[in-house]
């Protein structure tokens, strides 16, 4: 008999078949693995961490007209079908609802350690070489410009402004990716983020050299 985690893996793979490559099963798998690595250094519920990591982007609002209610609904229906305890379901749904970068101004001051872990893992997958690849893939998906020297990054955007933004891919580094290192919650998250942050800085240096044909 398969475990709940094994069933969740199968469910997510099926649900995200054909998804945009930066938010597909492989993203979920990486966040799951990173979450387990961070969870090993924290006192937490392994079940909540793994389920939340696997389900956190089951219906990313970016691909559902900004609707943030779809993912929790899908996750609840699935978890109830797996006979997961209600208190575990509530904790997983809380993470799904509050993990996003754009929602960071709306979350409670005190966050459960499981959310901190999965949020760190999700943010770590948004930076470094993988983060660069995901960012350019999504920019191409949206048909955004790679870079325009005349368009400056828009810092301190509100949630609505962030959701509606169609800025350049390079500006996204300054509007989000380079900010993530200092938003890590856990010691392990900070450690893992530093190397990837430094890699992005090196990439940007090289990008601007090549853009300007130095």
Structure write-up:
This protein is mostly helical and 214 residues long. The chain folds into two domains: 1-103, HD-domain/PDEase-like (Cyclin A, domain 1, Orthogonal Bundle), CATH 1.10.472; 127-213, Methane Monooxygenase Hydroxylase, Chain G, domain 1. It is 59% helix and 0% strand. It contains ten helices and no strands. The chain has helices spanning 4-15, 25-39, 46-55, 70-81, 86-98, 113-124, 128-141, 159-164, 169-175, 187-211. Helix 2 (25-39) packs across helix 6 and helix 5 crosses helix 6. Keywords: Hydrolase. It comes from Chryseobacterium luteum. GO terms for molecular function: hydrolase activity. InterPro entries: HD/PDEase_dom (IPR003607), HD_domain (IPR006674). This is Phosphohydrolase.
Quick rundown:
The protein has 214 residues and is an all-alpha fold. It has two domains: 1-103, Cyclin A, domain 1 (Orthogonal Bundle); 127-213, Methane Monooxygenase Hydroxylase, Chain G, domain 1, CATH 1.20.58.1910.
Helix and strand arrangement:
Blueprint: H1 4-15, H2 25-39, H3 46-55, H4 70-81, H5 86-98, H6 113-124, H7 128-141, H8 159-164, H9 169-175, H10 187-211
Question: What attributes does this structure have?
Answer:
214 residues, HD_domain, 2 domains, Methane Monooxygenase Hydroxylase, Chain G, domain 1, hydrolase, single chain, 59% helix
């Amino acid at each position: 008999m398969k475990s709940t985690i094994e069933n969740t893996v199968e469910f997510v793979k099926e649900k995200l078949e054909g998804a945009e490559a930066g938010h597909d099963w492989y993203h979920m798998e990486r966040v799951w693995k990173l979450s387990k690595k961070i969870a090993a250094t924290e006192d937490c519920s392994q079940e909540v961490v793994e389920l939340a990591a696997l389900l956190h982007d089951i219906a990313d609002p970016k691909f559902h007209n900004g609707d943030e209610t779809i993912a929790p609904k899908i996750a609840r229906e699935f978890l109830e079908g797996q006979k997961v305890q209600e208190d575990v379901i509530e904790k997983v749904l809380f993470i799904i609802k509050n993990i996003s970068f754009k929602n960071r101004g709306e979350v409670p001051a005190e966050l459960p350690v499981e959310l901190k872990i999965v949020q760190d893992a999700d943010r770590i997958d948004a930076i470094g070489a993988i983060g660069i690849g995901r960012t350019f893939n999504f920019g191409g998906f949206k048909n955004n410009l790679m870079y325009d020297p005349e368009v400056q990054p828009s810092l301190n955007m509100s949630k609505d402004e962030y959701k509606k933004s169609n800025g350049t891919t390079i500006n996204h580094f300054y509007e989000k990716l380079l900010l993530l290192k200092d938003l890590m919650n856990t010691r392990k998250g900070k450690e893992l983020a530093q190397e990837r942050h430094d890699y992005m800085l090196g990439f940007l240096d090289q990008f601007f050299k090549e853009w300007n044909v130095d």
